[in-house]
Specification:
single chain, alpha+beta, 7-stranded mixed β-sheet, two-stranded antiparallel ribbon, 4 helices
Amino acid sequence: MHIVSIKEMPKETIVDFFNRYWGSPKMVISSGIYDCSTLDGFVALNEGYKIIGLITYIFRDGQCEIISLDSLEERKGIGTALMKKVEKVAAEYHCKRITLITTNDNLLALKFYQKRGYMISHIHRFAVEKARKVKPEIPLIGNDGIPIRDEIGLECDLTDGT
C-alpha cells in the first residue's frame, strides 16, 4: 500500500471516486457543505496504483475535522493508516482535537473510531433529513436496513496523548 497526498492525484480520478462511492463529491453534514474533491487529504493506493482508500479533512478554529474516510478493503489497515496520516498532520498544525461526523447506521465506523480513542461528543437528531434537502441522493436506508436519520459527532483530544 502506498499513501500519497490527494493533490498528487488527477482531479478527475478523485471526482470519479466520490461519484462512485458517495453519489457526488458534495458532502452535506451539519458542519457545512463541502466539495470533497477540493479538500486536503490522502489516498491509499494498492500495488497496481488503484485507489483502495481515501480521507479528506479541513482545519478550522484550531481543530481538524475529518470530512470523509473510505476504505474499500476492510480489515487491512487502510483506514488506520489514513487516520494516522491525518493525526500526524493535525499534530504538526498544533490542533487541539480531531472531530468527525458519521451517521447513525454506520456501526462499523462507530466501532472503528472508538477503538482508536475517539469518543461520541454529540448527536444531531434528524440532521440527515435536512441534508437530503441539499443532496437528495442520500439514501433513506443505510447499513443493515437501518434508516439514516441522525449524525453522530466524535472527537479525539490531541492534548491528552490519545
